[in-house]
Amino acid sequence: EGLRRRARDSAVPGFRMADKDHEAALAELLGEVGPLDDKKAGGDAGNRSSNGVHTAEDDVSVERELNLGPLDITSERDNDVFAALEEGGLDLDLVKYADHDVVRSVMENSDATDLKRRAKAVEDKLQSVEMESIKDYVAESDNLLELHAQIQSCDGILGDMESLLSGFKTELGKISTEIRSLQDQSQSMGIKLRNRKAAERGLSEFVNSITLPPDLVRTIAEEDVSERYLSALADLDRRLKSVEANPSASASKSAEDVVPELERLKATACAKSREFMMARFYSLRKPKTNVQILQQNSIMPYKYLVTFLANHAPAILTEVRACYVDTMSKVLRQAIHGYVSSLRSLQQDIASRTDLLGAEENAASGGAGSFFAQFGGAKSAAALKNRSSVFSLGSRAAVLGNLETTPPLIVHQVQSQGLKVPHEALFRSSHKLVMDTATFEYLFCVEFWQQDRTIFNDVFAPTIATMEENLQLGLAHGGASNVFGGNFDAIGLLLMILINREHRVVMSRRKVPCLDHYLDGVNMTLWPKFKEVFDAHLQSVLAANVNAMFKDDVRAHYVARRYAAFAASMIALSGGGSMANGESDGFIGDGQLESNLERLRFAVHALLLKVAKMFPGKKRGTVFLFNNFDTICAVVREARPIFLKYDENGGGQTFSNETFKFFDEQLAAQSDAFVEEELADHFGPLIEFVKSAETLQKGAEGEEGQAPSLQQATQLMRDFADRWKGAIERIHAEVIKNFGNLQRGMDVLQRTLSQLLVYYTRFTGPDGVLAQMGPDGAALCKDAVTNPAFMYEIKRHSQSRIN
Question: According to the 3-state scheme, what is the secondary structure of 427-446?
Fold first, then answer.
């Protein structure tokens, strides 16, 4: 009914709505109707309206035109449209909105002139739809009633469930309260349990510490020291510490009865521990006792006695410690001193004070000393049987191999073989024994005496003092009047320095620092002595008596031979020892040895030049220098520091042999000098003619002289042709006679003959002196010796050998 009233009232004039709302409602209505593009559609609509008969086909047509879709009679949208239309008449609106684009578009369409008829059709359609909707609601009324009943039933069920859940919620609240109560009770009971356990534990500890089991008393008082005794001692120590650490226990009534008994047991245990350890320490003093085995097997297992005495009887521990220090210091000192003394019989004397580079060859040998000289006095010169090792290293470097694994020498075995050992081997053997002994003693003291490292210093101090005394006396044997001390073997001293350095590496690898100070002291003692001996060699060369040394012999001088062997030995030992990571630490002495070798190199070179000047002829002096430099180069050429590392491809550490470079340059210079002097002896006029002619032909400034004479050139050509082969024979014979190294002599001969060919080519060649003298000079070249003839003679004499 409401819909019908709104539809009827919509056509009643006299009501106006706001312009904007009215415009919106009109636009919506017109939008639903839409422009009538199809004239036939407009015509049919007019016909249907004019007939006045409403059919089903009309409803369908109107619905299609209106495009209403599924209508909801209660929608807000329809209410708003009808409300807008109720406020004013459609006619007035059409006049008012005639200029609107939509209205104008509709009005211009000739098929849409009757808007009232179209509005009437729309109203009829709305009434039809309304009636159909009402019929549908009435048809579904039973279902709606049934649905309403079901909804009420569900609502009742949900109410029952709500009541049930409310009851559950109330019950759960009660249970939660009970759980919280139980948790509080549980926490309270847990605290009480922990307190009772703590009380029980404290009471149990107090009872255990304040009581003395009969087995413990019997073991401490009656049994000997053993593993069982050590266990009882640990139990007693625990009870004593417990009573001392708990003042309340000490003040209890039970403690008044038990503490005196604990003190008596402690006194008994300390006395028995002292007696046991004193007896074990005294057993180390027995002769021929293997001290290390006894320490490890008979003393080390009872190290807990030291802990017990340190806790409860420090005065007794000090007494026991003093006994151990006194015993072991004497035992170790006697053992080391006896071993060093026994090595004296194996000593091989190498050098004396006169075994210097610059000493005269026939000088009388003086007394010899060594590191072990103080044990048997100096040897006489007659005892020096092996003099080849004074300046040559030889096989002595083998002492540097496997220093850590090679055991000390066993004296009676070496004596049974009738062998003598150089003093660097004795130095290595004695220090190897010292190192091994110190390592074992240090580790024993650290473990047995509760990490007390000072006790080792007290034990080993006499042994170290003995070794230092032996070293000082051995190096300085001979008294103050002996300028060079007791050891004059520079190679041996350098080997000892390297051995000492390797020993430091070994101790570092063992992580035992107990001998660091001693080994540093040994190094500081050996280096000055080596420097002293090296300076003695240098001074002997600088102060050498050239007149006494000179012999009219062009072969290598004994000073050169000594120096070559000595320099090669120094070069071989110049590489420092291997460091902890296995690499070489470079030249020893921070460059001191290289500097000393350089000084000695220049001194020997100057001495040889002085000796060469004493030869009657300059050429003999040149041959003398050549032979000496060649000897030195031959020896030092292959010298390499034995510690340098090389890989298979020739890589690794590099080494520059400055000694070889220096004398090789000097050798080349003497070779050139000999070639010129030898050619000057046999072909002097020819060489002088060529040089002077070339100088004048070049027109050198400041050069004045007579022009080369063709007659002189002719005479030189004839003279050369007559005797050049004989001269080559004489040169060959002289080379073989003067040069000790045949291969080197053949090289010099080849260079001499090659240089002769050069001079002759400059004389007779196409661009030579004769060719520059005009046609007559060029004619002389036709009779010149051919190059093939020269080459044949050079090859023949260069390959010849001594018959």
Answer: HHHHHHHHHHHHHHHHHHHH
Collapsing DSSP states into helix, strand and coil, what is residue 286?
coil
Closest CA to 532 of 607, 482, 466, 569: 482
C-alpha–C-alpha distance, residues 333 and 266, integer Å: 36
The tens digit of pLDDT for each residue in 133-192 reads 888 888 888 888 889 899 999 999 999 999 999 989 888 988 988 998 999 999 999 999
Task: Spell out the alpha helix ranges (H) of 739-786.
Answer: 742-764, 775-780
DSSP-derived pairing of the beta strands 421-422 and 347-348: parallel
In DSSP notation, 149-164 reads: HHHHHHHHHHHHHHHH
- What is the C-alpha to C-alpha distance for residues 656 and 651, in angstroms, rounded to an integer? 14
Per-residue b/e over 72-93, b at no fewer than 16 CB within 10 Å?
eeeeeeeeebbebbbbbbbeeb
Between vectors from CA 313 to CA 456 and to CA 324, what angle results, nearest 5°? 30
Angle between helices 304-312 and 314-343 in degrees, nearest 10: 140
- CB burial class (10 A; 0-12, 13-18, 19+) of residue 727? middle
With 90 as the cut, is the pLDDT of residue 458 above it? yes
CA dihedral 296, 302, 308, 313 (to 10 degrees): -80
User: Cα dist. 69→55, 66, 79, 128, 738 in Å?
Assistant: 19, 9, 17, 14, 139
Distances (CA, A) of 633 to 16, 494, 560: 136, 23, 10
530-575 residue pLDDT tens: 998 999 999 999 999 999 888 888 888 999 999 999 999 999 888 6
